[in-house]
Amino acid sequence: MKKILITGSTDGIGKLAAIKLAQAGHEIYLHGRNSNKLEAVIAEVKTASSYDKVKGFVADFAELKAVEEMAEQVRNELSALDVLINNAGVFKSAAATNEAGYDLRYVVNYFAPFVLTQELLPLLRKANAPRLINLSSAAQAPISYPILKGEQEGATRATYAQSKLAITMWSFQLAKVEPDITVIPVNPGSLLNTKMVQEAFGNYWSSADKGADILYDLAIEEQYQANSGQYFDNDAGGFGKAHAMAYQQEEIRKLMEATHQVIG
Fold first, then answer.
1. Could you tell me the CATH number of the domain that includes residue 57?
2. Could you give the number of structural domains in the chain?
3. How confident is residue 197, by pLDDT bands cut at 50, 70 and 90?
4. SS in 3 state form for the chain?
């Protein structure tokens, strides 16, 4: 039985993956930004899985202080963490930026998982064969540092793609510096039937189960233990190539430097 934390798991593929993993007997920790919705989904996962080891944490990932506070709660609750799935993401939003002036896509899709993971590395290191699954996308675009640093605004779709390249580049970097943690960035599938996709595009290509199934597999299946630092493309059904920039060490160095400037 593994202890598994899934961010952004009150709907979409995060919730579906949580149900599947709970049904397999794993201890599940959900995350959402609304406490009432989180409690409802915890109850739903327990009912769907006939399993009661399901808990949750509340945090609005638009604010990095809230991410840090949640990480502290996780450290107080758990002595070790087997799997962290950084699934929370945003495409469209009512406001383009958070209160600090940073683009919401960069904050939720990249900075929040970066901060949460750094804070939870001690728990992952204590686990036997820990894994970190980071949600990337088929949409990846070269990073605009003025947008990343909150110095200018960018178009929604382009900034979303930049944030997904950023999390992929950081995943490759983390796989090198944490050799005992299996780190896998994954495109769970393009235009899956989720609320985020419906709001962004109004249509879909595949069922949300396609994404949930690959999160389940990457989280616990033995065959993926040795694939740290590789990009899984669920559109292609296997490991593939991310954006070319993700493999350029100088670009990764620039991203890490800018990231630390933002998060302090």
1. 3.40.50.720
2. 1
3. very low
4. CCEEEECCCCCHHHHHHHHHHHHCCCEEEEEECCHHHHHHHHHHHHHHHCCCCEEEEECCCCCHHHHHHHHHHHHHHCCCCCEEEECCCCCCCCCCECCCCCEHHHHHHHHHHHHHHHHHHHHHHCCCCCEEEEECCCCCCCCCHHHHCCCCCCCHHHHHHHHHHHHHHHHHHHHHHCCCCEEEEEECCCCECCHHHHHHHCCCCECHHHHHHHHHHHHHCHHHCCCCCCEEECCCCEEECCCHHHHCHHHHHHHHHHHHHHHC
